[in-house]
Structure to design on (888 residues):
């Protein structure tokens, strides 16, 4: 039996490794456009910042490693051009030559492509997106001869890049269409804390305005926002990603509103074709609507599900909350589930609990602010959570994600059991305090 | 209406503050033997270690603060000697004079007393327990003229004190009757990591042996264990605590196997007497048996429950898992629910998942070992968890406590949603990896 996987990101390679973990005999072939595999795109801003020394550090395995340790064949720099799902064949180009390969199972892990706004100047020298190791290397090189940069998009990658390039000594201007930073997982009040932190570092922001134009002849010289010109030497577009669905279409797989349609086994409408990672649609746990989940951790989980199902181990991919965490400078920022803002848009009535607490006992040195915001439905069930702090945020977000999935109430969290020791916690867990704050509003 | 509270620890003062939060009129009087109130006994080792500068730092409020800010009367250095629950009267001695006070509600927050083993020499100069600020001050003073110390009992406080006194330059010998350190919340394999860490710092251990005798004329000169003599200048007894139940008995409250009996409102068998904190029995969530929960965080939660019920807000104290966390030097050690060892004693068959992972992405600088052990029942439901690491342990323990309360399975945790960013997490959450390790054993 042969499984062909298209794509060498976290989703594709996890599928490959999972199949091999449970089955030594299946032939596994991974086709990838990329030159470097098994790296973490989320790490790119931290290499540019200098926290991680070199791009080589974030490449965890070579194709030779995969062959030697797991007997997985990875064909790099190969571009799949067609899929014939009746004949179970994939056509690809490698070294300028067209090749064909048959499969028993095909896995589409085709990922996503950075969205490029349809405006003037996006093709100028000095305009970058942040997706591949090559992107990272080019940004780093170009930044060495640049004095200023405009970051378009204030999502997690945008802000991480803004901080990184500020650290490298550039003047940084962030332009965001939404009226706040991190609109995908923070409410305006929480986003303000993050923006203030970055402003204190000298980063400038233009909110509520789209980028109109990138200016320059050959190279970037500036940008135009709200009819004003800002001189910058480089532009980074971090305006989201779009799922790569072209190959799935060619294979005859059904496509949904956002991406490739799959069932909870990660199987497409073509029974021997699976799809995983940024290119597929998933289900939102709260709204039950279709959504995207372009996260490395989602890709890994989906790869495990697809791999297990292909070898015959039943396994389901559950609905998502798209919990997110970002480390921007010293700040740790996380969110999960619904924001109060998005609940409002969906006309879901909510009650909010919010508290400013500390990460350690008040008298224990080194404790830092920890701001916790919890969003509850009318039935007191928790629907979302946001935390901004300097330490111990990520695992609290995980605990709150678990709380949402298990439909815990404000009472459960206010009276919940949390461990305690002065160096790591307040005796009153901040999550409990925020839940109590909400309870007081329910009781009014 | 008047509420009298006996005891000024976390349980008593939280009860007082909770009553005041919801009712401005009730008269609240706290009677306490102690001179200092509102301090954290868990912080004592960290003052001795020098992490916290002064004992004054861990005293968070004065009786005057309580009077001024919350209109709560705290009568310090007052010893309650009798309770007449027919006449609703408390008798106490203050400044050598006997006083009497009537109550509408009485709250017993009488706490616990360190257990003193019934052996020779426990009254010698240089023998200490670790409970009050005065204890801490005496230990610190005595340690300044001491070269060596024996710590009796390798629970969390024992090990925290061992580390603290080693840091102050003393030779430290830890004596523990059980064959391992931290027997209450770690299995032997996890305890070994902690012991090894402390041995590397130069701390010595004698396990599986009881302390037989403390030697000396007036002052401590040594201890005798397994018929051998070890020269030490001071001895710290950290051999657990016993609930203070004498006043409850005098009041006619029912006493259980371990402590004062209360219902889930924290009400004793006498309807207008509540009891909270170390002195009461609670219910173990897993075994449904009675147990103790002598933790500051439990005391606070019980105080909130008692306070709310007294002012008429319904609120229940749920069964406990006794989740625990300790920071010993750089090591963060946590546990919740059943250990494999205790499951074995109770003849509960379990399957264990264990993994050594990292606290950050492999390539991100500063990542440290994180060892996660999960204990599952035969139905794959999680029953317990233990983590030893250097960062980000406490909140993982909380997430696992939530998982036990919500009866999650190994499948749920293996496929669970966890947020991810390279500076704070591996893309594969260690909890998921440990759950997968267990699943592989279930499938065999």
């Amino acid at each position: 039996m042969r499984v062909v996987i298209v794509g060498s990101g976290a989703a594709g390679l996890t599928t490959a490794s999972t199949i091999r973990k449970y089955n030594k005999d299946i032939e596994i072939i991974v086709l990838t456009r990329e030159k470097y595999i098994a790296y973490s795109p989320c790490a790119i801003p931290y290499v540019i910042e200098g926290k991680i020394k070199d791009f080589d550090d974030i490449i965890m395995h070579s194709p030779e490693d995969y062959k030697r340790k797991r007997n997985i064949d990875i064909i790099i720099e190969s571009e799949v051009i067609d899929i014939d799902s009746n004949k179970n064949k994939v056509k690809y180009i490698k070294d300028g030559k067209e090749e064909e390969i048959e499969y028993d199972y095909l896995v589409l892990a085709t990922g996503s492509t950075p969205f490029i706004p349809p405006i003037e100047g996006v093709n100028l020298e000095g305009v970058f997106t942040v997706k591949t190791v090559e992107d990272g290397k080019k940004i780093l090189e170009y930044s060495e001869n640049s004095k200023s940069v405009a970051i378009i998009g204030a999502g997690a990658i945008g802000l991480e890049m803004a901080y990184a390039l500020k650290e490298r000594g550039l003047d940084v201007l962030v332009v965001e269409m939404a009226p706040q930073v991190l609109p995908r997982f923070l409410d305006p009040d929480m986003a303000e804390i993050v923006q203030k932190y970055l402003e204190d570092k000298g980063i400038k922001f233009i909110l509520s305005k789209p980028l109109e134009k990138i200016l320059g002849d050959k190279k970037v010289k500036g940008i135009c926002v709200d009819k004003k010109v800002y001189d910058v030497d480089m532009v980074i577009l971090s305006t989201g990603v779009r799922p790569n669905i072209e190959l799935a279409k060619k294979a005859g797989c059904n496509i949904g509103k956002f991406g490739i349609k799959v069932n909870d086994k990660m199987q497409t409408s073509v029974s021997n074709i699976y799809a995983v990672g940024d290119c597929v649609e998933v289900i939102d746990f709260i709204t039950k609507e279709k959504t995207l989940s372009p996260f490395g951790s989602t890709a890994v989980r989906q790869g495990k599900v697809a791999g297990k199902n292909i070898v015959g181990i039943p396994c389901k991919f559950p609905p998502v909350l798209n919990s997110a965490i970002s480390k921007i400078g010293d700040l740790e920022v996380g969110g999960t589930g619904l924001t109060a803002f998005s609940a409002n848009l969906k006309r879901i009535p909510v009650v909010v609990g919010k508290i400013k607490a500390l990460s350690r006992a008040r008298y224990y040195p080194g404790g830092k602010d920890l701001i916790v915001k919890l969003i509850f439905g009318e039935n007191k069930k928790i629907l979302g959570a946001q935390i901004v702090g300097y330490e111990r945020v990520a695992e609290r977000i995980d605990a709150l994600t678990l709380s949402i999935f298990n439909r815990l109430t404000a009472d459960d969290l206010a009276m919940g059991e949390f461990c305690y020791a002065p160096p790591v916690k307040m005796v009153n867990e901040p999550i409990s305090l925020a839940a109590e704050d909400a309870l007081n509003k329910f009781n009014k």
Remarks:
- The longest helix of chain A spans residues 296-310.
- Chain A has a mean pLDDT of 97.
- Chain A has three domains: 2-113+241-310, 116-237, 330-442.
- The radius of gyration of chain A is 23 Å.
